[in-house]
User: Which sequence fits this backbone?
């Protein structure tokens, strides 16, 4: 909610044109970009998410195999919301702006199946989404060619929607 509060403040102060705001983030920021438009998509004309977590239940299930996962589970749980409420994958109906979704195939930090599942559910719902997967790439876009492709995709997307 802080992100939306900040966007509203930027608009009110005249720092941002409300007709040209797109939210973008990678990794946790990718999750935040998607969940922010779940909370209030009216502020943004589009969203870009790289390597996001889209399903908190799926994340917890994946992490159960890792030592120390209980710390993460306790960190993620809240009395204020459920995992479904905090998972963009479970709130497709609230997503009504164009989304550019990017992920690397060999991402060890954020499983690529998070983006694949999200894309498939969005596509099935007829939502405006474009998905690009970087074959063999990692969480950090270490490959220079893939970094350029990433930036070109973002540039084209922003030109189209802003």
Assistant:
């Amino acid at each position: 909610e802080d992100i939306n509060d900040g966007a509203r403040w930027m608009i009110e102060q005249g720092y941002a044109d409300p007709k040209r705001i797109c939210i973008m983030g990678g990794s946790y920021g990718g999750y935040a970009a998607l969940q922010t438009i779940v909370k209030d998509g009216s502020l943004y004309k589009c969203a870009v998410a790289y390597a996001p977590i889209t399903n908190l239940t799926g994340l917890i299930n994946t992490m159960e195999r890792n030592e120390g996962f209980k710390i993460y589970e306790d960190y993620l749980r809240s009395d204020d919301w459920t995992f479904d409420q905090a998972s963009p994958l479970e709130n497709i109906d609230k997503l009504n702006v164009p989304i550019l979704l990017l992920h690397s195939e060999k991402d060890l930090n954020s499983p690529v199946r998070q983006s694949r599942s999200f894309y498939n559910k969005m596509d099935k719902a007829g939502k405006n989404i474009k998905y690009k997967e970087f074959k063999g790439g990692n969480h950090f876009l270490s490959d220079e060619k893939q970094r350029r492709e990433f930036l070109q995709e973002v540039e084209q997307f922003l030109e189209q929607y802003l």
User: Anything to note?
Assistant: The helical segments are 2-12, 28-40, 56-63, 69-76, 112-124, 144-161. The radius of gyration is 16 Å.
